[in-house]
Amino acid sequence: MKILTLNINSIRAHAESFIKVLRERRPDVVLVQETKVEDHAFPHILFEHLGYDVKTYGQKSWNGVAVFSKLSIEDITRGMPHHADPAARMIECVIDGRIRLINVYMPNGESIDSPKFPGKIEWMNHFSDHIHPLLNSEEPVIIGGDFNVAIMDRDVWNPKQYEGSSISAPAARKIMQEWLDAGWVDCYRHFNPDAENAWTWIGYRGGSLGKDHGLRLDYFLANHAAKKLIKSCEIDMLPRTESKPTDHCGLMLEIN
Question: Under CATH, which number does the domain 2-255 receive?
């Protein structure tokens, strides 16, 4: 099974390039973030002929997540249980009756001085409570999406430039590191421990793509049961280099 996670930065704005990615890479499942469209207006018809069933959790103009799958999608939960979040940031489901996927678009938080930053930390703490009992579950669980955290300085092209940013804030890094210390596996680093310039976000401005200036903000995390199934995890530049691209690269996970 090939699972792709991708922040699409508007499904309607980047549908054409996204369809090219789907045809070229042929993932079985896709976790999409920042769809930026309400459920009733989601362009399902563009993807159904490619063989995908699509489950959405969206809102107007902002946020929004979706799961595309060629396999059965069951036990769907929209939003984080026990956390009243007005933003559409999480959808959870079981694929093919055998693996639980959690698709997340975590809050950006802007800067550590922003009034939005405490909300980012609050969200991450609630998410910690949600995933804690899943770590040792016999059911394979994989979390994928845009975490809006560059967990180490080597995940930032210029750490000095991002001092004060929420994506490298110590408080956010601490929470995510606690997940890894507890046993959640950072799938990309599991297979690529020494990779440098491993960016999953490359901005549009300042020639960032050509200069290789980026951040690693997108992840797959696997619980103990899922770790036994993963075969590879690689960054896919195609979504970022297509015409009219999103500002994120894809992250492709392959499991048995």
Answer: 3.60.10.10
